[in-house]
Amino acid sequence: MRARIAHLLVAGLALTLPALIAGCSSPAASPVPGAESIKGTDGPMTDTQGPASPTPSSPAPDEAAAAAVGTVLFQVDGKGRPVLAMNRNAGFSYLDSIISPSGKDESIFSSFDQSGNRMAQVTSDQGFTGECGLADVGSQASRIVITENLITQPAQGVSPETRSLDVTGWDPVTGSKRWNTTVQPPDERTGACLNENSLSLDHLTATSDGRYALLAAGGVLLDLKSGSILKRGSVRGVLGDYLVVGDRVPYALVDPATGRRMGTMPDISPDAWGWAGSHGVLTEEGAGSSLDGKVLFGTEASENGTFGNGPIKAWSIPSLKPLFVVKSKNDYTESLSGVANGILLITRRSAQTGEETTAALDQETGALRWALPVVVGICGASSSQLSVSVNSQRATLDPHTGKQLSYSANDVNCVGPISMSGLESDGNRITQRLAP
Fold first, then answer.
1. Contact 78, 86 (CB under 8 A)
2. Number of Cβ within a 10 Å radius of residue 292
3. Using the 8-state DSSP alphabet, how is residue 131 labeled?
4. How confident is the model at residue 63, as a pLDDT?
5. How far is CA 298 from CA 32, 257, 305, in A?
6. How far is the C-alpha of 211 from the C-alpha of 226, rounded, in Å?
7. What is the separation, in whole angstroms, between the first and last Cα of the chain?
8. Distance of CA 42 to the CA centre of its chain
9. Are 429 and 395 in contact (CB under 8 A)?
């Protein structure tokens, strides 16, 4: 993954940077309330010892009402290394990775609903390794928490020590295991979690519908309902609800359920695959998918193999048939900056005057929806609102009209990813940044 500009997702997901919105008539928003530890009540703790075969998932909980914008839903208060994993659609999970002085793993993870109420709590002795991190993926109905478990078998005489690695899917409501799958069988060379350098499972990319996930380190494709490992050829990445597959360019876009080829990938930056459009921000080289995973944006590779210099193009997912090309006017050049609900955001720059503007285009047709006489940095988007960084302040816009809904002089820059439900994570706390 390339460097990520606004906070480095994650998630996930790519980013961009700052300037101002004319006509700020709204009063400055009040500062974010003081953080309390955990809002809401503890959910059930369930003993998950027992068979590792798939178990029926619990019914989806009633969708919790969103908190007021600006409410701090959770503040890290654990003893170990913290991981906050936001679900793209609703709620979040928190892992407190704790290693005792004796070296014992005493980690705990908890799952929370959209309002910040704790639903379930699971301890590492129930079958996960805290230092391997966790992910929270899926829709409201199919939501699942994913962990890894590094299992060590001590040496037995002439038999050397071996390690194996399991991936487990947990029900976020009850804390019970839905499935457990061995992705690396016992071997003396298996030495660590799939992501050795981070507590987050940012190597795991789930399809937009939350049905499948790719463990990039090893190319393992999982069915998230059953935990089964699927064979779909050489899987390179995830795009919307589909897989990018192949050994060389041009790659194919494949239906993970059937293995059917749906279209042929254009030659754009591979950073576009999987995470780019999932929080409203795009890659450094300007590529990614729409917020709903239905449209691919990017610039095709130039003759020397670089990206980001040609005209912006859009393709329909999954057919990958061209939708439109953004044509430069006069001495202007365009670059991708982000996405919102139904919107592609671009920056226009004049080589002659240096003038810079932000334009919002319809993601299906490329038609101009609105424009601002400034450049804004895209912090993220919910289903109904857009958060931007501008003039060292944060502002909230209506993505369909460009109208400013509010601003805050107390916030300077983008701080982290924003989910479709409007939650924002800065790594230490979860805040209701936008309306869902």
1. no
2. 16
3. G
4. 55
5. 36, 26, 14
6. 10
7. 28
8. 26
9. no
